[in-house]
Amino acid sequence: MNETLDVVLDVLAAVCLLGGAVLTLAAGVGLVRFPDLLARMHTATKPQVLGLILMMLGLALRLRSGPVMWMLLLVALFQMLTSPVAAHMVARAGYRTGKVRKELLVVDELTRDLELAHAEVAQAEVAQSAPDRAAQDEADPPARADQDGDGPVS
Amino acid sequence: MIVVVIICAVLLTISAGLALVRAEKGPSMLDRTIALDIVTSTIVGAIALEAAWSRRIDTVPILVAVALVGFVGSVTIARFASVEPEGEGRVLTREEIAAAESERLDAETTALESSDPEHHGGPAQGEVRE
Fold first, then answer.
1. Which of A52, A138, B113, B117 is 20 to 30 Å from B78 at the Cα level?
2. For A150, phi and psi rounded to 5 degrees?
3. Higher pLDDT among residues B67 and B17, named by residue
4. B92 phi and psi, to 5 degrees?
5. What is the ipTM of this complex?
6. Which helix (H) or strand (E) holds B125?
7. Would you say A54 and B47 are in contact if contact means Cβ atoms under 8 Å apart?
8. Which residue ranges does UniProt annotate as crossing the membrane (chain A) (predicted)?
9. Taking the CA atoms of chain A, what radius of gyration do you get in angstroms?
10. Who's near A96: CB < 8 A, 6+ residues apart?
């Protein structure tokens, strides 16, 4: 009975290891084939993390010892915690340094929101500078002649 | 088991090789960072595979350490990434390096000759020459 259980667990472990290796290969292929930074970043996180989790599962099924299982769980947990952080940082740096190819994006909410925010800030500055200037002109009439011709201070 | 381990090792090797191809080609620093991230994860996978094959548990702490530290590199590079000039992120071929070098030498000699004809093109001020 115990031997059959061993064989079953070993086969399961082998399947998990194979799946993990195939997903890692998929990540490598995607890395070479995908056209721009964001797509490559996405291969580096999704198939990569799932592949690593499968390999850890396979290793845990093969080793079958309690404390080691916890450490492998920790490895999977760290991967799931750290790879989104790394991907986010890379994407942010890529967007800011202009590595994003706009024509490949289906939706670009960040650019839209940034433009909206810039427009709002500009409106607020115009609205703020107009009463300021009126108040300044009232308080200091002789200076008005000097200020004529200057644009609004913003 | 040995067949599975060999197949997995081949797949992992191919994956690491493709990641290295991207690290060589990658038009920007960030692409290379991602590629090296994948290489790190592949190394974790390879260590796990070896541990599964020989049923050893002493390499498992290495997995924890590499999984924890692996992302530090990409985050650091991403934090300090700046706009790179066009065409800068590429490994030059031998001919291009030779052309650039000869161009530089030509510019240097013409600058040297034109700077001070009376003194037979002596070295520029403050320049140390043997």
1. A52
2. -75, 150
3. B17
4. -75, 150
5. 0.73
6. none
7. no
8. 12-32, 44-63, 69-91
9. 29
10. none
Instruction: List the single residue in A28, A79, A85 with the smallest CB-CB distance to B75.
Output: A85
How does DSSP classify residue B121? S
Q: What is the DSSP letter of B55?
A: T
pLDDT tens per residue across span A24-35 = 999 999 988 888
Tell me the residues of chain B between 2 and 61 that have a Cβ less than 8 Å away from chain A: 4-5, 7-8, 11-12, 14-19, 21-22, 28, 30-31, 33-35, 37-38, 41-42, 44-45, 48-49, 51-52, 55, 57, 60-61
pLDDT at A143 (0 to 100): 46
pLDDT score at A3: 85
Residue A148 has pLDDT above 60, yes or no: no
A and B: number of Cβ contacts within 8 A: 157
Give pLDDT, residue A147.
46
Rounded to 10 deg, the angle between the B29-54 and B2-25 helix axes is 170
Domains of chain B, by residue range, sit at 2-79
Token pair in block for residue B7: 């197949």
Residue recorded with tokens 């056209």: A35
Torsions phi, psi of A147, nearest 5? -80, -15
pTM beyond 0.90, yes or no = no
